[in-house]
Amino acid sequence: MALDFKSIISNNPWLNALNWFKDIFKKQESLNQQSILNCPEGTVPKRLSAYLLETDEDRKPVKLLAERYEFWIYRQLKKRFQAGEIYLEDSIKHRCLDQ
Fold this sequence. Notes:
By secondary structure, the protein is α+β, with helices and mostly antiparallel strands. The chain has one domain. The chain is built from 3 helices and 4 strands. The strands form 2 sheets. Strands 1-4 form a two-stranded antiparallel ribbon. α1 crosses α3 (66-83).
């Protein structure tokens, strides 16, 4: 919650998801309480939508499966962090490669 991550990619969907989580948790709300419309675009791949989203009879997404989605986002953040796509400016070990 206290760390300010940056990205070398403008409008990074994974960083947007992290900031969305921070906003939710600052309000002391649950991810289960959030509308699917607020979910950051580009964070639910089609191949995993059946596992991350609850759908209605018409196969339209109606709700996030919060625990799975949260795990998915943290896993993607870890991968992006290790690749240097997401970094901490004040870190010696995990800062932008340009520095």
